[in-house]
Structure formats: structure tokens, C-alpha cells
Amino acid sequence: MKKYFLIILLCSVNAYAKPVNFEKLYQSWGVTTKADAKKAEIMWTQEFIVDRSCASCHTNNLKKYGAHIKTKKRIKPLSAKVNPKRLTSVRKINKWLKRNCKFTYKRECSPQEKMNFIEFIKQN
């Protein structure tokens, strides 16, 4: 009985997790300007490395599944409208932006670029 109670308790903690305070996140990155989702939309399809852009793995439609161009691993939709787990953890946001920017652009994205990408994803 205790085992089941613990499982239910652990599952319910995630259900009541605080939503990400994006304003606070952007401030922690030192961003003082407004987000520009249009700039992120342009960067989304730009290839800084041959045959590699955000859309290469995530597709142009953030509501659809993608696949990693090297590993072929299936990627769940980025749109929170169809995948409610997206953009719910600051730790995961930081982890994946860092990893994906390095893979796609061979550098970390600037705080402004990260903010732009988040706003682009939120709008889709």
C-alpha cells in the first residue's frame, strides 16, 4: 500500500509543478530587449552548416513529430499546444537550447536568440 501511495504522490507533484516564469528566466539570462519570434522563425530554417537547421530535425511544423538527422531518433512535437510537456522545466529548456544550438550552429545561442526561439515555440 505504501508503495502505491508513494507512486501516486510522485506523479501528483509533477502535475502541480509551477509553470515556468519566462520573464524571470529571460532576466536571469540578462536579456533586456523584447523577444522577436520572427527572427527565430527565420533562424529556424537557416543552414549555418550544410544540411543542418532547426527544421532539419524538428520540421517546419512544430506540431508534428520530427527525427534527429544523424540518429534518426523520433522527436516529439515542440508545440506545447499538442505536447503539453514542452517548455515546462527551466532545467530542460536550458539543457536543450544549449545542446541544440551547439549541434545546429556550432556555438551556444545568445540569450536574445534563446528568448526569440522560446517565443517562436510558444506561438506555434
Could you walk me through the main structural features you see in this protein, from its secondary elements to its overall organization?
The chain has 6 helices and 2 strands, in the order ααααββαα. The longest helix is centred in the C-terminal third of the chain and has 16 residues, at 90-105. With 124 residues, the protein is mainly alpha-helical. Helix 3 crosses helix 6. Strand 1 (66-67) and strand 2 form a beta hairpin. The chain has a single domain (18-123), classed as Cytochrome c-like domain (Cytochrome Bc1 Complex, Chain D, domain 2, Orthogonal Bundle), CATH 1.10.760.10. It has a two-stranded antiparallel ribbon with strand order 1-2. The chain is globular, with a radius of gyration of 16 Å.
Q: Which CATH architecture? A: Orthogonal Bundle
Q: What is the CATH topology classification name?
A: Cytochrome Bc1 Complex, Chain D, domain 2
Task: Give the termini separation.
Answer: 43 Å
Strand order of the largest sheet: 1-2
Q: Could you state the order of secondary-structure elements as H and E?
A: HHHHEEHH
Report the uncertain regions.
none
Radius of gyration over C-alpha positions, nearest whole angstrom: 16 Å
Query: How many DSSP H or I helices?
Result: 6
Structural class: mainly alpha
The chain-level mean pLDDT equals: 89
Overall tally of domains:
1
Major sheet summary line: 2 strands, antiparallel
**Outline:** globular
What's this, in brief?
This protein is mainly alpha-helical.
Question: Can you lay out the helices and strands and say which pair or pack?
Answer:
Layout: H1 2-15, H2 22-28, H3 37-45, H4 54-58, E1 66-67, E2 74-75, H5 90-105, H6 111-123
Antiparallel strand pairs: 1-2
Helix pairs in contact: 3-6
